[in-house]
Amino acid sequence: KKVMNNLRDLPIDFEIIMIIRNQRSWLISWYQERIKRLETRNFNKWLTSKDTKNTLEVINYFRTINLWRKFFKNKKITIIPFEKLKKDPDKFIKEISKILKTKIKIDDTSIVKSSISKRGIIFKRNMNILGGMIVSLFGKSSFPFTFFWKINKKLLSLDFLISKLFKSKINYSLDSRIAREYEKNNKLLDKHNKFNLKEYGYFNLNSKR
Fold first, then answer.
1. How far from 144 is each of 4, 18, 130, 135, 187, CA to CA, in Å?
2. Tell me, what's the pLDDT at 110?
3. CA–CA–CA angle 5, 104, 193 (5° rounding)
């Protein structure tokens, strides 16, 4: 709500463009970021924890977008799947340009960073657990933890190397109850969206695409 209020109070005209992403893909990506922030739980425990509840609610796109539509009654809200960018970057940019009524040119549309592997995630998570043990034994300001932290940061900066050393495709599945709720609402959202969400796996989130 704070974001919506701040946006409404801007002294300029604006367009609202929402980039959505297949929820399973989004959650796996965000879990990788959590691992970099010293997460120690496995994917399923993290996914079903209380502190992840708000995140799960936000990416229930049908409900979130409806809230925005009620708040900005006189504004058109355009929804574009992130998968469109991955599939055809040029068409994605053209779509944005059309909405904004201005030409956008991006010289490099290549993927900047690829996902780390499943084994890479396990390796980093175990490093996080080890770090927690060191803190409990010696404290956060101790030399052992300071030394460990420097090594851990160095390893975290070598995503590309860890991915090559620990090649394994990430195939985490969503909790079936969570997946069903998203799929049901994604179908409702699809009726009001010009892009075919089924094509991008929004109707069958746990399929290994």
1. 45, 45, 11, 9, 52
2. 62
3. 60
